[in-house]
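Problem: given the chain below (136 residues), write out its structure.
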Amino acid sequence: MTDKNVIHAEVEVINEGGEQNNNIALPSRILPQHLYLIPIATRPFFPGQVQPIVLSAEYWKDTIQKVGETEQKLVGLVYTNNIPAQETAPENFASIGCVGKILKPTMQESNIHFICQGMHRFRIKRWLGSKVPFLV
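Solution.
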């Protein structure tokens, strides 16, 4: 059964510059404007990498709670050249880091344990919080 009054239309997506764009924004590609940071002292974290991370609950609990309150549960992992996490200041962070998705966070004794999946590279444009929880 067909309806003669139904109009079929084609749609094309136009970006701001007026050009046709055939790309669909996937949820995994939409990144937040602001990221909480966690310093990584031993070696940089890379996209595609999946690794367990252990942090001091005393020092990083607020950061992990704030990340947990976000819709995407994403955090910025930034190399700090072997500086202990508790002594890290904004000037110690590299300018480029890796956006990571926090999976299965748990508290064990005085530490926070979670699996982190590296998603994308990012560049720090501006510091919004220069003390823990670091926000860029």
